[in-house]
Design brief:
- The protein is built from six helices and eleven strands.
- The strands form two sheets. Strands 1-2-3-11-4-10-9-8-7 form a nine-stranded mixed sheet. A two-stranded antiparallel ribbon has the order 5-6.
- A hairpin with a 2-residue loop joins β8 and β9.
- α3 packs across α4 and α5 crosses α6.
- The longest helix has 17 residues.
- It binds coenzyme A.
- The site of coenzyme A has 18 residues, from α1 and α2.
């Protein structure tokens, strides 16, 4: 099986790739990639993404074959909640600066799924008191989600250096304020990993989540992507 999820009107997400052990290495996953990419292209999606573990060679190979490029290697970091000052809650006027400070993508509530971050996401997070900033003129920012199994999830984060470290420490305090056990986020790049370590965060496992992306050009005469969250006519892939 292989699933195509509609994560926004222009973005498709590939997930759930599973091939029964006795049928592996015969091109089934490759065929499922081809089918879903053609499906996304026909329906006018502009970008297709997927994530996979850094050691999942078959999926890296299939991605390369279909022209996906790796846009991030994300390493999970966790830290225990720590009493302190959870200051740094963002104000409405910060929305544009937060959008710029954060990376281009936001994670779904849990799991390895991302989609494009919009300024509406930022505004909504500010209204729900889920956006945090640090540094002068928003040098670092984060959007948090709900909690999962006692853990505070950071859905998007950006910045580096002292400001990011300060923000990560404040998020530990926010987890404590909410009565949660810990806080977790996905770090992208050496600067974020350094800030994470100096704020007391550690990776719970070795390895990373690799994020792949491929842009699609709209095929002539193809319809626009559906605006519903699930393509009702989707064949089972
Ligand atoms: C990953 C998985 C879906 C691959 O399915 P598959 O049908 O065997 O894959 P394919 O036969 O289409 O092979 C894809 C590519 O990987 C290579 N490959 C397949 N299995 C491999 C292995 N064990 N080691 C190295 N390369 C491998 C193939 O040679 C092919 O490369 P190529 O196009 O350069 O020749 C299957 O192994 C699986 O179900 N694994 C467990 C679940 C999982 O990891 N799912 C993916 C989650 S993101």
């Amino acid at each position: 099986m292989g699933k195509l999820t509609v994560v926004s009107p222009t973005e498709a997400w590939l997930e759930g790739g599973r091939v029964a052990p006795r049928w592996r290495r015969r091109g089934v996953a490759t065929a499922l990639f081809a089918h879903r990419i053609a499906y996304a292209q026909e329906r006018g999606f502009r970008v297709v993404r997927f994530s996979t573990a850094s050691d999942n060679t078959p999926i890296h190979r299939a991605g390369r074959r279909f022209g996906f490029r790796r846009i991030a290697a994300l390493r999970r970091y966790e830290a225990a909640a720590l009493k302190g000052d959870p200051s740094g809650r963002a104000r409405n006027a910060d929305a544009g600066a937060i959008r710029r400070a954060l990376g281009p993508l936001i994670q779904f509530e849990a799991g390895w799924e991302w989609r494009t971050l919009t300024v509406s996401d930022v505004r909504r997070a500010i209204a729900r008191r889920r956006a945090f900033v640090a540094g002068r003129g928003v040098e670092a920012a984060a959007i948090i989600g709900g909690s999962s199994d006692g853990s505070l999830l950071v859905r998007a984060i950006g910045g580096k250096g002292r400001a990011l470290r300060e923000l990560l420490v404040a998020l530990r305090a926010e987890a404590a304020r909410r009565g949660l056990d810990d806080v977790s986020f996905y770090a992208s790049g050496a600067a974020q990993r350094r800030a994470a370590r100096s704020a007391g965060y550690r990776p719970p496992w070795t390895g990373a989540a690799y994020l792949y992306e491929r842009s699609l050009s709209r095929a002539a005469g193809s319809p626009r992507a559906p605006s519903t969250s699930t393509p009702s006519t989707a064949p089972r892939t």
